[in-house]
Amino acid sequence: MEEMLVNRVANSGLTTINLEDFFPTGEIAHFDLVDYLFMGLILKEKDFREALKNHDWTQYQGKVLLVYCSNDSIIPVWAYMLVATYAEPFAKDIFQGDQETYYKAAYNRALSHIDPASYAGQRIVIKGCSDKPVPPAAYLELTRVLKPHVQSIMYGEPCSTVPIYKRKS
Fold first, then answer.
1. What's the short name of a Pfam family annotated to this entry (predicted)?
2. Is residue 96 part of a domain?
3. Dihedral of the CA atoms 145, 148, 153, 13 (nearest 10)?
Protein backbone atom coordinates (compact mmCIF):
# COMPACT_ATOMS: atom_id res chain seq x y z
CA MET A 1 0.00 0.00 0.00
CA GLU A 2 1.39 3.40 -1.03
CA GLU A 3 1.42 6.24 1.45
CA MET A 4 0.26 9.59 0.19
CA LEU A 5 2.87 12.35 0.55
CA VAL A 6 1.42 15.41 2.22
CA ASN A 7 3.01 18.82 1.91
CA ARG A 8 2.60 19.97 5.49
CA VAL A 9 4.29 23.31 4.76
CA ALA A 10 1.72 24.16 2.07
CA ASN A 11 -1.10 23.15 4.43
CA SER A 12 0.31 25.00 7.44
CA GLY A 13 -1.62 28.24 6.96
CA LEU A 14 1.55 30.33 7.04
CA THR A 15 1.85 33.58 5.11
CA THR A 16 5.36 34.20 3.79
CA ILE A 17 6.64 37.72 3.25
CA ASN A 18 9.78 38.07 1.16
CA LEU A 19 11.50 41.39 1.80
CA GLU A 20 13.28 41.06 -1.55
CA ASP A 21 9.91 41.91 -3.09
CA PHE A 22 10.34 45.42 -1.65
CA PHE A 23 13.93 45.86 -2.85
CA PRO A 24 14.37 49.23 -4.54
CA THR A 25 14.60 49.06 -8.30
CA GLY A 26 16.56 51.26 -10.61
CA GLU A 27 20.18 51.86 -11.30
CA ILE A 28 22.18 53.61 -8.59
CA ALA A 29 24.73 56.32 -9.35
CA HIS A 30 27.18 57.82 -6.87
CA PHE A 31 28.20 61.45 -6.40
CA ASP A 32 31.10 61.57 -3.94
CA LEU A 33 31.83 65.08 -2.72
CA VAL A 34 35.38 64.05 -1.84
CA ASP A 35 36.21 64.60 -5.51
CA TYR A 36 35.43 68.31 -5.08
CA LEU A 37 37.38 69.01 -1.90
CA PHE A 38 40.39 71.30 -1.94
CA MET A 39 43.37 69.26 -0.73
CA GLY A 40 40.90 66.54 0.20
CA LEU A 41 39.74 68.58 3.18
CA ILE A 42 37.58 71.61 2.47
CA LEU A 43 34.94 72.64 0.00
CA LYS A 44 35.52 75.99 -1.67
CA GLU A 45 32.15 77.42 -2.66
CA LYS A 46 33.27 79.27 -5.79
CA ASP A 47 35.23 76.29 -7.17
CA PHE A 48 32.45 73.88 -6.25
CA ARG A 49 29.79 75.95 -8.02
CA GLU A 50 31.96 76.10 -11.14
CA ALA A 51 32.59 72.35 -11.08
CA LEU A 52 28.87 71.64 -10.73
CA LYS A 53 28.08 73.96 -13.62
CA ASN A 54 30.53 72.03 -15.85
CA HIS A 55 29.55 68.54 -14.66
CA ASP A 56 27.71 66.21 -17.07
CA TRP A 57 24.41 65.73 -15.23
CA THR A 58 22.84 63.74 -18.07
CA GLN A 59 24.73 60.65 -16.87
CA TYR A 60 22.23 60.43 -13.99
CA GLN A 61 19.17 60.30 -16.27
CA GLY A 62 16.58 57.98 -14.70
CA LYS A 63 18.94 56.80 -11.95
CA VAL A 64 18.88 57.03 -8.17
CA LEU A 65 21.67 59.43 -7.24
CA LEU A 66 23.41 58.94 -3.90
CA VAL A 67 25.22 62.07 -2.71
CA TYR A 68 27.78 61.65 0.06
CA CYS A 69 31.35 62.33 1.13
CA SER A 70 33.51 59.24 1.58
CA ASN A 71 35.99 60.83 3.95
CA ASP A 72 35.51 62.52 7.32
CA SER A 73 35.42 66.08 6.01
CA ILE A 74 32.73 68.36 7.33
CA ILE A 75 30.50 69.18 4.40
CA PRO A 76 28.23 72.23 4.60
CA VAL A 77 24.54 71.46 4.12
CA TRP A 78 24.29 73.86 1.18
CA ALA A 79 26.62 71.59 -0.83
CA TYR A 80 24.01 68.82 -0.88
CA MET A 81 21.36 71.37 -1.79
CA LEU A 82 23.40 72.62 -4.75
CA VAL A 83 23.91 69.09 -6.06
CA ALA A 84 20.17 68.51 -5.81
CA THR A 85 19.39 71.60 -7.88
CA TYR A 86 21.58 70.36 -10.72
CA ALA A 87 20.66 66.67 -10.51
CA GLU A 88 16.89 67.04 -10.06
CA PRO A 89 16.00 67.42 -13.77
CA PHE A 90 17.76 64.12 -14.55
CA ALA A 91 17.81 61.77 -11.56
CA LYS A 92 14.84 59.55 -10.74
CA ASP A 93 15.54 60.13 -7.05
CA ILE A 94 18.25 61.93 -5.08
CA PHE A 95 19.36 60.71 -1.69
CA GLN A 96 21.91 62.07 0.77
CA GLY A 97 23.90 59.14 2.08
CA ASP A 98 25.69 55.97 1.08
CA GLN A 99 24.14 52.88 -0.48
CA GLU A 100 23.47 51.09 2.82
CA THR A 101 21.69 54.13 4.23
CA TYR A 102 19.70 54.46 1.01
CA TYR A 103 18.51 50.86 1.24
CA LYS A 104 17.37 51.41 4.83
CA ALA A 105 15.42 54.52 3.86
CA ALA A 106 13.95 52.89 0.75
CA TYR A 107 12.73 49.93 2.80
CA ASN A 108 11.22 52.21 5.44
CA ARG A 109 9.41 54.09 2.68
CA ALA A 110 8.15 50.88 1.04
CA LEU A 111 7.09 49.26 4.31
CA SER A 112 5.18 52.39 5.34
CA HIS A 113 2.73 51.54 2.53
CA ILE A 114 1.92 48.09 3.91
CA ASP A 115 -1.58 47.69 5.33
CA PRO A 116 -0.79 45.72 8.50
CA ALA A 117 -4.49 45.13 9.15
CA SER A 118 -4.59 42.96 6.02
CA TYR A 119 -2.40 40.49 7.94
CA ALA A 120 -4.67 40.48 11.01
CA GLY A 121 -4.58 37.18 12.89
CA GLN A 122 -2.22 35.52 10.41
CA ARG A 123 0.88 33.46 11.11
CA ILE A 124 3.70 35.23 9.29
CA VAL A 125 7.05 33.91 8.12
CA ILE A 126 9.48 36.64 7.12
CA LYS A 127 11.73 34.96 4.58
CA GLY A 128 15.31 34.93 5.76
CA CYS A 129 17.54 33.99 2.86
CA SER A 130 17.93 36.57 0.15
CA ASP A 131 20.08 37.20 -2.88
CA LYS A 132 19.85 40.96 -2.42
CA PRO A 133 21.35 43.07 0.38
CA VAL A 134 18.20 43.46 2.49
CA PRO A 135 19.28 45.53 5.51
CA PRO A 136 18.57 44.20 9.02
CA ALA A 137 16.63 47.43 9.64
CA ALA A 138 14.00 46.21 7.15
CA TYR A 139 13.38 43.06 9.21
CA LEU A 140 13.10 45.17 12.35
CA GLU A 141 10.66 47.60 10.71
CA LEU A 142 8.45 44.87 9.25
CA THR A 143 8.29 43.14 12.65
CA ARG A 144 7.41 46.43 14.35
CA VAL A 145 4.64 47.17 11.84
CA LEU A 146 3.09 43.68 11.86
CA LYS A 147 3.35 42.71 15.55
CA PRO A 148 0.18 44.44 16.80
CA HIS A 149 -1.91 42.72 14.11
CA VAL A 150 -0.65 39.18 13.60
CA GLN A 151 -0.95 35.91 15.50
CA SER A 152 2.75 35.09 15.17
CA ILE A 153 5.95 36.12 13.41
CA MET A 154 8.69 33.72 12.43
CA TYR A 155 11.96 34.20 10.59
CA GLY A 156 13.43 31.85 8.00
CA GLU A 157 11.74 29.42 5.64
CA PRO A 158 8.38 27.73 6.31
CA CYS A 159 10.17 24.38 6.74
CA SER A 160 12.67 25.76 9.26
CA THR A 161 11.77 28.88 11.21
CA VAL A 162 12.94 30.81 14.23
CA PRO A 163 10.02 31.99 16.38
CA ILE A 164 10.10 35.76 16.89
CA TYR A 165 6.70 36.61 18.35
CA LYS A 166 3.56 34.77 19.36
CA ARG A 167 0.43 36.50 20.59
CA LYS A 168 -0.60 35.36 24.05
CA SER A 169 -4.16 34.03 24.21
1. DUF2480
2. no
3. -110
